[in-house]
Amino acid sequence: MINRIIALLIRYQNIALGSIPRLTSIFYWPTVQILFWGFFTNYFYQINEFNIWSSLNVILSAVVLWDVLFRSQLGLSMSFFEELWSRNLPNLFITPIKDYEIIIGLLMISLLRTILGLTPAIFFANYFFNFHLFELGLYLIFFFFNLTLIGWSIGLFVSALVLRYGQSFEELAWAIIFIVLPFSCVYYPLSSLPEVMQTFSSIFPTTMIFEEMRSLIFNSHMNHINLIKIFFINIFLLLMSSLFFLYMLRVVRNKGIMINQGE
Amino acid sequence: MKTSIKIENLSKSFNGKKILKEINLELPKYGIFGILGKNGAGKTTLLATLMGLITPTSGEIKIFDKSLKKNKFEILNQINFQSPYIELPKKMSVYQNLIFYARLYNVKDREEVIKDLCSELLVSDLLNLNYGKLSSGQKTRVNLCKALLNRPKLLLLDEPTASLDIQTSDFIRKYLVKFQKNYKSAILITSHNLEEIKYMCDYLIILEDGKVKDFDTITNLLKKGKKSKIEELLLND
To answer: Closest-CA residue in chain A for B92?
Structure first.
């Protein structure tokens, strides 16, 4: 099992990092995002009067953490789509690799791509804006891990749909995260939403995470009951999306879709 | 091991339409078996079902006397497949692709096996090229390398020489015949090229409308049907 997962990791790493343009595309967007929001917040400070450091920290932390979710989702989906684009799926599924090993391989490569993609962004944020993400302390690991779980869940869900319904669903890989974004209260507090939307948004685990992040930066306090809730919701989401992916593989085998993807 | 493949009452339906109908078949342990049939006869569906890519609606498949359903991963380790319609990742080099599959099949001395196979199939000079940059003839030979990495006891080939030039096709046919003799394997091949079938195959399976119309050696089939050419076996009386 370990050998096959390592083989998958080496292969996805070869595909993702095999050339300079592909490697650049992994860290290009997070870096651009951090620079854009950093300069924008600086400008906002010049024309307004508010606590620059707290605001900058909140916005840049939100940018980086949101990107954790986005990169982990995209890293997983794109790695899986590579199999479809290269018309290679049947070759993969006639090897002794097990379905769950493919899922583990996809999760691992997504994690690797997320870390690689965000490292330069964090470096630039530190250099230009004196922003220290690691000031979030151990909670940073909690935020990172939980947002990665959500990203994986969405990535598996989208990949399963593309596997079953074809490449017309690929757009969803880019779009789905932006459907979730307004309700996740990434850059603004839940209280700033209209009351009707507040109830709806509060069920999103992303909203809970970003609310706790703001509470930590502004008040140096977090609700530990909420953290436990967030963790179990996310584990549940990942479990459900993994089962959905496995179920779609069964459907695809029943409908004979896999062999036709090569044609 | 008595048989390479044993199929009992195999049926497969898609959206209520039966593609494979109560197929019963028993193939000897070794040999090259050709599957002939018109378009839509169920050839590719049968191959895909034998590899576990399609789940049968009913019936049982045994490969090397073991149930495919119950021993899928053990069996998949001993079989392989090649088709010109299924490719390898284009962004990876030939070597990266081959070493990946060698790892998945847990091939011992994989570097050595790849080196030998590439040399035999004349692709050694392509190892560092990206798969996407190869011609169709080169891709077919590389795909064949992939299909032989685990020295399969059962090799499934879907139109292995489709759209290839005469020289490459001839080279591949000769290579496969030699491989089957050397490794005493079973090769199941679908092809529309009757010359290819005639040259390579010991046995023929005639599929018609999802059913096995006949299965025997080419000589016996011709004798039974009082035909002089293989193509006549496919034509309706």
So the answer is: A15
The range of the structural domain enclosing residue A180 comes to 2-260
CA distance B193 to B236: 18
Measured between alpha carbons, how far is A147 from B227 in angstroms, rounded to an integer?
69
Number of domains in chain A: 1
| Encoded tokens for A56 | 């900058």
Please, which residues bridge with residue B214 across strands?
A: B206
Scan for tokens 């080419």, then name that residue. B218
- Rounded Cα gap, residues B98 and B101, in angstroms: 5
**CB-CB under 8 Å, B53 with A253:** yes
pLDDT one-digit tens code per residue, A217-248: 888 888 889 899 999 999 999 999 999 999 99
A26 to chain B, closest Cα gap in Å = 16
**DSSP annotation string for B193-223:** -HHHHHHH-SEEEEEETTEEEEEEEHHHHHH
Cα distance between residue B102 and residue B114, in whole Å: 8
Which pLDDT score, from 0 to 100, does residue A12 have?
Answer: 80
B133 lies within 8 A of chain A by CB:
no
pLDDT at position A209 is 92
**A62: number of CA atoms within 13 Å, CB side?**
25
DSSP letters for B83-108 = -TTS---TTSBHHHHHHHHHHHTT-T
* Distance set, CA B79 to CA B57, B106, B110 (Å): 22, 13, 17
Please, are residues A58 and B59 in contact by the beta-carbon 8 Å criterion?
no
**0.80 exceeded by the pTM?**
yes
Q: State residue A84 phi and psi, 5-degree precision.
A: -70, -45
In the predicted model, what is the mean pLDDT of chain B? 89
What residues contact residue A180 under an 8 Å CB cut-off, 6+ apart? Answer: A154, A204, A206
- Of all residues in chain A, the one with the smallest CA distance to B48 is A259
3-state secondary structure of A68: helix
Residue type at A204 in one-letter notation: F
